[in-house]
Sequence to fold (504 residues):
Amino acid sequence: MQVKTQLDELQNYLIDASNLPGGHAEKLFIPETAQEIAEILKQAGESSIPVTISGARTGTVGGAIPFGGHVISLERFNAIKEINRENRYAVVGSGVLLTDLQKAVEAENLFYPPDPTEWSCQIGGTVATNASGARSFKYGATRRFVRRMEVVLPGGEIVNLKRGETFSENGFINFNSANAGAIKIKLPTYAQPDVRKNTSGYFSGDSVDAIDLFIGSEGTLGVITEVELDLLPKPEGFLSGIVFFKDEKDLLDFVDQARRLSFQTRAGSNQSQKTANQNSIDATLIEYFDGNSLRFIAEKFSQVPSDAKGAIFFEQETNAETEDVLFEQWNTLLEKHNADTEASWFTTTEQDLIRMREFRHALPVSVNERIVRYKQRKIGTDMAVPDEHFASFLRFYKDKLNESGLDYVIFGHIGDNHLHANILPKDESEARKAKHLYGRFIAQSVMLGGTISAEHGIGKLKSKYLNVMYGERYLNEMAELKRQFDPKGILSRDNMFEAKLLGV
Ligand SMILES: Cc1cc2nc3c(=O)[nH]c(=O)nc-3n(C[C@H](O)[C@H](O)[C@H](O)COP(=O)(O)OP(=O)(O)OC[C@H]3O[C@@H](n4cnc5c(N)ncnc54)[C@H](O)[C@@H]3O)c2cc1C
Fold:
């Protein structure tokens, strides 16, 4: 195991994609075995030294940024241990990069769908944040694919958790650890918000699978060292389209119907045990770009029509038999909702699909160029609301942003009622206004029964808002859960909620 203490050696481990400043640490450990991690945690516990877990540091909420103490990097847990083609699963060290897993899995004609568009992240990081992405509309978030994990608890116990093996009963759950015997834990009692994606706080429910407690726990309950993941057969092909609309109502009606048809198809498939050869609409992703986003993209893609009020990027699995009939069905739906089909763009070829991904990628690139130009930070939302409130929430975003006079773009996973509003301040005064608006969006999403974070997590940046969503009682229940695993609060201190709630 490598141990580093020099500032220049630690520098890269003090930042992540959040740009949260002030990270500092005394020691960096780069262990190679779970036993080494157990030893580091036991010793840190004895001296009450905080320990931060470092994946690839692509997180956007400061979860991997240390504020004192030790850092444990998982980079040496980078072995792809098994890809089982027949039974469709993979066993990987938690430090394996998503891009490496995707390549290895594809080589076996298999498919690992969770895809947060940032492929340099580690599998452990994606499990700890329950990462999701565009294709989560059909396949779900990371949680759905985790079937087993090895995790080192803050006290140094090494635990193996298998999905379906241990469930909570009457609000308590029992863990069996190899070196500390049975551990009985009391769970929080709040209900999850009625949304399709949620990464705000610990998983809860009537009958919680032990493994689900760790997925999305943002490094606060243990260090994930090994993960076994479900895989799917690799789709034969995809039909994709980028379609423009001149009227926002048409666009929203189109999304509504595409979503309903997709759910209907899935329900029908489940009943007849059919997963492939579908010949009805069943989108893998439905992504949205508002008019402002299109103006940014137009800087790089001149074919964006100047009168477009918004665009949708959709995709569906196809094969040689279903390609034509599916194209017909999407086309009929688009025409019904007055899409600008002349200007729109459809493909089933890999080459064109790459170009479509570039189209999508042109937005963050142009937005980032703009942010750098004004030396400001963008203020980005990650909220999702229940189906019935989505249209009014989008209206609220747009009304408030237009009233404010601030520049903004709204884009993202409209299939899951989950859009990112990025506010782009030009100076300090606009930045203050943007932060104020962000607070109003949080309040509105909570009022509508939504979540303050649907995919990026809470980390250190959003912990103050978790109180708005859950209130003091449930925040205390979360702290109580954490205290049972980690009485001194050494692990991932200040992630999700402030350490003072733990009394440390
Ligand atoms: C351009 C860009 C786009 C993104 N888009 C999306 C998106 O669409 N959807 C989405 O969900 N996310 C997105 N993300 C963020 C996403 O959270 C991360 O990409 C990823 O899930 C975190 O992995 P990581 O290895 O970088 O973890 P880190 O950033 O290093 O850590 C994230 C958190 O997990 C903890 N952690 C890391 N490894 C472990 C481990 N082995 N055991 C326990 N805890 C651990 C850390 O302590 C920290 O709290 C995006 C990020 C970027 C930069």
The two ends are 29 Å apart (CA to CA). Residues 273-277 have pLDDT under 50 and may be disordered. The longest helix spans residues 350-374.
